[in-house]
């Protein structure tokens, strides 16, 4: 059995909230969008990562995922994210912190999703 990619689906009450996080803050690009479908969605990509954002109020209420994005340069990611959207920094992990398990981490969150950035 061979897998080549994991694609995450995230549900938002308002799709524009997800676009603010992923496109405006994290610099993902929109590979495809259908804003007029019965369930509007966008396919986003960056560095070989694909994320699907869906607008669905009911599913957004049921799903509150946390993602981890691993990087080789957490200082660069932190500088970019904290400059673009300091309001998204998670209050419990708003600075790069060396964790007891040996990883450097910081986190952001919007109303739907938490993202932990990690460098081993």
The helix content is: 10-25%
**Number of helices in the DSSP assignment:** 3
The overall average pLDDT, rounded, is 94
Radius of gyration: 15 Å
Calculate the terminal CA-CA distance, rounded to whole Å. 28 Å
Shape: globular
Q: What is the CATH superfamily label?
A: 2,3-Dihydroxybiphenyl 1,2-Dioxygenase, domain 1
**Helix/strand order, N-terminal first:** EHEEEHEHEEE
Write a short abstract of this structure.
The protein contains three helices and eight strands; from the N terminus they run E-H-E-E-E-H-E-H-E-E-E.
Structural write-up:
The chain has a single domain, classed as 2,3-Dihydroxybiphenyl 1,2-Dioxygenase, domain 1, CATH 3.10.180. Helices cover 23% and strands 37% of the residues. The radius of gyration is 15 Å and the shape is globular.
Chain-wise SSE layout:
Layout: E1 7-12, H1 15-25, E2 29-34, E3 41-46, E4 49-55, H2 57-62, E5 66-70, H3 74-84, E6 97-98, E7 104-109, E8 114-119
Parallel strand pairs: 1-4, 5-8
Antiparallel strand pairs: 2-3, 3-4, 6-7, 7-8
Keywords for this structure?
alpha/beta, four-stranded mixed β-sheet, 2,3-Dihydroxybiphenyl 1,2-Dioxygenase, domain 1, 3 helices, 120 residues, 8 strands
